[in-house]
Amino acid sequence: MSTSADASTPYKVLVVDDSRLQRKILCSSVKRWGFEVVEAASGEEALVIAEDFKPDLVLSDWMMPGMNGLEFCDAFRKLSGDRYGYFILLTSKSEKNEIAMGLEAGADDFVTKPVDANELRARIKAGERILLMQRELTRKNDLISETLDELQRVYNSLDSDLLEAKKLQQSLIRERNKSFETGDVSLMLRSSGHVGGDLVGFFPAGAGHLGLFSIDVSGHGISSALMTARLAGYLSAAAPDQNVALHKLEDGSYAFLPPEIVIETLNDLVLDEMETEHYFTLLLADVNLETGHVRMAQAGHPHPAIQRKDGAIEQNGPGGFPVGLMSGISFTQFEATLNPGDRLVLLSDGVTECPNPQGVMLEEEGLEAMMRELRDVSGPAFFEAMLWKLGEFAVSQPFPDDVSGILFEYHGVDAAK
Regarding the domain delimited by 172-416, which CATH topology (the fold level of the hierarchy) does it fall under? Predict the structure, then answer.
């Protein structure tokens, strides 16, 4: 018995011929071969039957009154949709152009009349092989569609979680800008994806002192973002007892430890307490709000940029080794003094290493040119303008890496009076 590929039921065959005798002969043979058979006396009747019967194979005479075999074949193809039916035309025609017409109408094969039973059986067998492949392809496509639907549901769930994670990561920066008596600080954090590995922040560091930190964790995505959350706790502004950059004095106040010692402590914490392959670069600064004196330590992070009141720009620093790669590493403190009207800019390498369409990076020279153009722009507007100009340089969005920064503008004691 000839059965369909998707069930134990036999293939369905629709026999269409205006000759009752011809239909009887064909139906008798096809039933004997194990098929389920339905007959129709015209193309119009066959279309009505096919709509509900949904045949797997069709044997149709070419020459019929009313709707002929070619017209029926064309209409059947439009009716069948995704379910393919193998169509065999029964004809006495043998000219090449006529066969081409049949193929264009959608016929799969031809059997010359008078019909030879052995030939017809062979043609049907060939059709069964096509149907088997088509059914198997349909089954696999259905499986692929189901898998893609499931993947889409998983993606939607992950996307929703990542959007929430983005909100949580952005909430690590409680204040984007704050004014002090002698200066203003502004923060910028823009991830290349939903979440990223950059983190910037500031914290009170004792009487007249302000701590600044700019962090760039290796890699991107969720694991990097989780590490930034952990590091935010180590440099917390809300819990000075937990801030590794501070030590408590006898009177209960806090003071900033030497920045290089703080970074060494963080290096030990990462290697000893965090089971991670990530490392990070860091620039940590202790700003004296009264004098403008700045103590800094650098761990593989881009150099700090100091823009003087007259527009001149200085980018200096020892460079240093990233945190979390090797134990026993020492870091070097370096210093600078801000005068009234000067400003300090700390940026992640997402700025200086941002490429243009030709693959050329902005680098320190490009940053200096950008800062000179923005010398009269201050506060949050400075970063908004910088992102705009960086977008013009890169041409394409989003940026390939996370972009973050801190701007500290020193006004001086006299300006505070």
Answer: Phosphatase 2c; domain 1 (3.60.40)
